[in-house]
Design brief:
340 residues, alpha/beta
Length: 340
């Protein structure tokens, strides 16, 4: 397995990157030789070692993203690697291991589907680990979203009960492992009973088969309702999720796997009395370096599981990774490793 290593010589003049020149199918993901990005003041150039493949990048390739995305564009909303170049007055030095994600990366400016990427320094998280790149590459966006939802969104505490709606998604599986590490009791959903084992492997205490009306199942286990719920399915499931939460409990809306982001003719009175509703959509700053370090240590010690669906090697396999992600046949994160 590929291991994190220090940066080598200075960056070359050109690099290989996956470029989307216009929206389309998988054929729109073209490998091109392009100039290595020039670092601006206050930005960092990273030699990319691995990156996760995400639904957002599929949307960018298809032309289904918002107006922030322009073409041609190198996709990739997250990546891990080593510092190649940074301001002298920053804390970053060549060869340090770093993660980066979000903040317009791969959308407003070129992203991590390349040998090098430049990002604002505030968007970089330092870490040190001997875990292989294929493991570390699965983490940034997935763990940032899960951790931010549980902390900023729900303020989850040890001893509380948590419902994860959309539990077999990458964020759902990550949220389960993090919540267990925090000391919570976790209920999590799947639409098929055959996938309950995946939830148990992530530490879920009570796997539930989601038939669309989940609140009654939850209250059979916890009559007063759960303390907190993480909504990843979307607005179609939200009313039922709200009814699964106790008075003065909270639901955090983070994702819409079912594709419904709004509720027609929404009325505030659909929210049960005393139940809180919030949302989460965060950035790299919501995953502090000490938290990432703790998670990396927990992975190394076997306390946290990383849900990796498949590892791909080289930019040539990006099309395969996006195709497999779209098929939805394998749970977990699809990770591309750039081997030296």
């Amino acid at each position: 397995m590929s291991q994190p290593t220090a940066a080598g010589d200075a960056a070359p003049a050109t690099m290989r990157a996956v470029v989307v020149t216009r929206p389309g199918g998988l054929e729109a993901l073209e490998i091109q030789d392009v100039p290595v990005p020039v670092r601006k003041p206050g930005w960092v150039r990273i030699k990319v070692k691995a990156f996760g493949v995400n639904e957002s990048e599929v949307s960018t390739r298809k032309g289904e993203s918002d107006a922030e995305v322009t073409y041609p564009r190198v996709p990739g909303i997250e990546g891990v690697g080593v510092v190649d170049d940074a301001d002298e007055d920053s804390e970053l030095r060549p060869g340090q291991q770093v993660a980066t994600m979000m903040g317009g990366m791969g959308r407003a400016y070129d992203g991590a589907y390349a040998q090098y990427v430049t990002v604002p320094v505030a968007q970089v998280i330092l870490f040190e680990t001997s875990l292989p790149w294929e493991v570390v590459g699965a983490l940034p966006e997935m763990f940032q979203t899960a951790y931010g939802s549980l902390t900023t969104g729900l303020d989850l505490k040890a001893g509380q009960t948590l419902l994860i709606r959309g539990g077999t998604s990458t964020v759902g599986l990550s949220a389960a492992t993090i919540a267990k590490d925090l000391g919570a009791t976790v209920l999590s959903t799947t639409r098929t009973a055959a996938r309950s084992g995946e939830l148990r492997a992530a530490g879920v205490d009570h796997p539930l088969v989601d038939n669309g009306t989940l609140a009654d199942q939850v209250r059979e286990l916890i009559p007063d309702g759960v303390d907190a719920a993480l909504e990843l399915v979307g607005c179609s499931a939200l009313p039922d999720t709200l009814n699964a939460v106790r008075r003065h409990g909270t639901v955090c809306f983070t994702g819409a796997l079912a594709g419904q982001w709004t509720i027609p003719d929404f009325s505030p009175f659909m929210i049960p009395g005393g139940v809180g509703l919030t949302s989460y959509s965060g950035e790299a700053a919501d995953l502090p370096a000490d938290v990432l370090a703790h998670q990396l240590q927990a992975i190394a010690a076997g306390r946290l599981n990383v849900p990796v669906a498949k590892v791909y090697h080289g930019l040539e396999q990006v099309r395969d990774a996006q195709a497999d992600l779209e098929s939805g046949g394998t749970p977990g994160k699809h990770v591309v490793v750039l081997d030296d």
